[in-house]
Amino acid sequence: MADAETPVIEVKGLEAYYGRRRILKSVDFSVNRGEVRVIMGGSGSGKSTLLRHLIGLNRPAAGHVRVLGIDLVEAGTAEYLALRRQIGVSFQGGALITSLDVEDNVALPLREHYPELDDNTVRIMARLKLEIVNLGGFQHLMPSQLSGGMIKRAALARAIVMDPKLLFFDEPSAGLDPVVSAELDELILKLRDALRMTIVVVTHELESAFRIADTITVLDHGDILISGTVDDVRNSPLERVQDLLNRRPRDLVIDADEYLRRLTEEDAT
Ligand SMILES: Nc1ncnc2c1ncn2[C@@H]1O[C@H](COP(=O)(O)OP(=O)(O)OP(=O)(O)O)[C@@H](O)[C@H]1O
């Protein structure tokens, strides 16, 4: 396992493809313990693809991904499962199971990874996490009875139920009003400070990114444009970074090679 000095995430030369299309182009990326790293970038820039590689859901076409000291390319199944117990993931949309109430949704990873735990212990652990995300008392509601912000918080409670060292959060603010979104930002900072988690957040929301980030990585068409502090990113002289910060669309500029490739490419099987 990693010591206190080693980055929690180390990625070197990561390449990713869907079919023959290269999505990530030799990405180098590292995240230090205890920081909130925000991954930003336009739609289709490769943020979710990078996240999937960091969680081990996708295998790199080239390069290495080391998480909490474990090389995901080389790890065997047992090592990977041990690692997954230390990683929390909250996907876009919440992905709660509609037939289970909030408490059973939150308890799910515990039941899956620690089947030997008795029901009472599982219940207490789930409720503790519901308290942390301000859903204390709502444990018996069904997902269909929750607001958008409550769904995100329940998904977050589920992601942290096993006290992960590392938390991945995909689009926490998507579809939320600004007040609820700001509450969620505060919650992310609370997890970093009170539970000392390292947190990687993918977001489109600039305001939220600047509020929660210790460091920011900006992706653009599968390349990292910049990784640095909030000030580094704000003051970046790179035109593409400023386009993103000022919401100037770049995708209207047609890349002739890419356009031709799309027209002529056979479907991957
Ligand atoms: N399963 C898949 N099969 C084929 N292509 C995919 C798949 N998933 C994503 N892509 C393509 O890969 C590119 C990068 O997608 P990705 O979802 O990583 O981007 P993103 O930055 O997360 O975008 P968004 O902000 O819109 O969610 C996009 O062009 C997308 O269409």
TrEMBL record:
GO terms assigned for molecular function: ATP binding; ATP hydrolysis activity
Signal peptide range: none
SMART domains associated with the record: AAA
Boundaries of every ABC transporter domain copy: 9-246
Keyword annotations of the record: ATP-binding, Nucleotide-binding, Transport
InterPro entries noted in UniProt: AAA+_ATPase (IPR003593), ABC_transporter-like_ATP-bd (IPR003439), ABC_transporter-like_CS (IPR017871), P-loop_NTPase (IPR027417)
Protein name as annotated: ABC transporter ATP-binding protein
Organism: Ahniella affigens
